[in-house]
Design brief:
This protein is of the alpha/beta class. It has helices at residues 28-39, 89-96, 132-145, 214-220, 249-258, 398-412, 421-434, 448-466, 476-492, and strands spanning 6-9, 12-15, 20-24, 43-47, 152-153, 156-162, 170-180, 183-193, 195-198, 205-206, 225-227, 241-245, 264-268, 286-288, 291-296, 316-320, 325-326, 331-334, 338-339, 374-375, 379-380, 386-388. It starts with 5 loop residues before the first strand and ends in an 8-residue tail after the last helix.
């Protein structure tokens, strides 16, 4: 894969002649990316498959469709899914632009003083933790204030991003859903861009572990087994016994919302150094070993979906890895996270290739977590005119993604230069060599300030030489707030190592 937008300067790469940039996604990563690119003078088009900006913070009472059980690797794209005969316009709209995992009670878990964009402060009087509506409005305000809204094509999903060897532009193919008096239309377009920013997030494809018997429970009792992406409110779990699988933010929130309504929560999880949320669980939560298998009491009965009457538990047993047996479970909520997938990248996504076998071009492999071949979690090494914002994990999110967007804008403008391709490849290779099983490759747990200073030093050195204003980095308020946050994280898990 080559590019006509690069030239070599003293052994480093400078991007040239970039004017038109596509941004995929209008969540916080996409909005701040578009805003900084617009401020730098680029022509920007943002593609958003839903009807609004806000990404994961947009609450839609409709849940997404159930994922497959199990679902352990990035799925092959099926762009014809919306053309199946017999679908209503509402069904097509749900498939074409599915709802996010946002639930009604969602709040930020990173304090607002360190979860903010440089483009806009939170409204005066905002607390450290605010509800979904406040966060969504904050993103909308950034988009309006910086004229991003006018650049967004809503109800538009990106189906292909590609560049032929020797081409100077990326070809982007899209599909736009529109309602009509008689139903709906799907409009296909193909356009070319000098650069592409992937800011589509990673909360789209649920990860469902391949636990023996789980798929049978889902098939037999579909309304009693769900992934947390389908969770919207705690009401259906009132006075129920709920087996909650997972130890992430959604598991914590579901427990905190359902317990006051009388739910009996049994949390099954695997021990992990990243399990930093256990202290926030409500009293009375029973924490148990990871599930080993699900058993149906009468496996010989007719294997068709059953709707159990209220007050009747699922007729089966759950065996844990330590041999404990659980019975009397009313609901199972699988809160095991998400698979990172960029289906529009075509051959750069290889769902059957193990992460250890990733070559120097692939972006996604079978693990569905590592985004390969990125320099500083941003620039695609074989062709840096493809950038990713929002890949880094266990970070201050809004603040870091805003910083990465500023860096991308400077590199796209040719004001900040990248190392040579061989140097970036070597750095990435060494980073992978440090990666250990059980780590999170993109984690910056309690150490993103180190990352920021490293990147800032590189970028500002080039900006000084170019005679343009330096990037300010994080302000004193952020650094003070992050230090407090950092110490709290380190004290909760002192052995968690940064892998950035």
């Amino acid at each position: 894969m080559g590019s006509l937008t690069r030239e070599e300067i003293d052994g480093r790469q400078a991007l040239r002649h970039i004017k038109h940039v596509a941004v995929i996604g209008a969540g916080i990563s996409g909005v701040v990316s578009a805003a900084h690119l617009l401020r730098a003078g680029f022509n920007v088009t943002v593609f958003e498959r839903t009807a609004v900006v806000g990404g994961v913070w947009d609450y839609d009472p409709r849940p997404d469709r159930d994922p497959p059980f199990p679902n352990v690797r990035p799925p092959a794209p099926n762009w014809e899914d919306v053309e199946k005969e017999g679908l209503t316009s509402d069904e097509v709209a749900l498939i074409h632009g599915p709802p996010t995992p946002c639930y009604a009670g969602l709040k930020n878990n990173i304090p607002t003083p360190i979860m903010r964009s440089s483009l806009l402060h939170w409204p005066e009087g905002s607390g450290e933790f605010v509800d979904q509506k406040a966060v969504h409005k904050y993103i909308e305000d950034i988009a309006r204030l910086h004229n991003v809204i006018d650049k967004v094509e809503f109800h538009t999903r990106v189906e292909s991003v590609s560049k032929l060897i020797g081409d100077g532009q990326w070809t982007v193919k899209t599909s736009t859903f529109s309602r009509t008096d008689s139903g709906h239309t799907l409009t296909k377009k193909t356009r070319n861009f000098d650069a592409v920013v992937v800011a589509s997030g990673h909360y789209h494809v649920p990860f469902v572990p391949d636990v023996p018997g789980l798929s049978t429970w889902k098939q037999r009792f579909p309304d009693r087994v769900m992934h947390s992406k389908q969770y919207r409110t705690p009401v259906p779990f009132s006075d129920q016994t709920v087996l909650l699988i997972g130890a992430g933010v959604s598991a914590l929130d579901i427990a905190k919302e359902t317990v006051p309504l009388g739910a009996q929560i049994i949390q099954s999880r695997r021990e992990s150094k990243f399990d930093v949320l256990g202290s926030g669980l409500p009293e009375g939560i029973k924490r148990v070993a990871m599930v080993a298998k699900f058993i149906i009491d009468d496996p010989a009965s007719e294997a068709k979906p059953q709707l159990l009457e209220a007050g009747h538990a699922i007729p089966g047993k759950v065996v844990l890895e330590d041999g404990t047996i659980l019975e009397g479970i009313d609901h199972v909520v699988v809160a095991t996270g998400y698979i990172t997938s960029y289906p529009f990248l075509g051959g750069l996504e290889q769902p059957l290739v193990p992460w250890q076998d990733a070559d120097e071009k692939v972006v996604i492999t079978s693990d569905g977590y590592i985004t390969h071949n990125l320099h500083r979690d941003i620039f695609y090494i074989p062709d840096p005119s493809l950038a990713f914002i929002g890949v880094s994990h266990l970070v201050s999110t809004f603040s870091l993604f805003d910083f990465q967007a500023q860096v991308a804008a400077k590199v796209f403008a040719g004001q900040a230069h990248l190392p040579s391709e061989s140097e970036m490849k070597q750095e990435h290779k060494e980073r992978k060599a440090r990666f250990k099983l059980g780590d999170r490759f993109h984690s910056m747990f309690a150490a993103e300030d180190v990352y920021i200073e490293k990147v800032l030093g590189w970028v500002n050195q080039d900006l000084v030489q170019a005679g343009v204003q330096q990037l300010p980095g994080m302000d004193k308020e952020w650094r003070a707030g992050y230090k407090v946050f950092q110490e709290r994280l380190k004290s909760s898990r002192p052995n968690v190592l940064n892998n950035s």
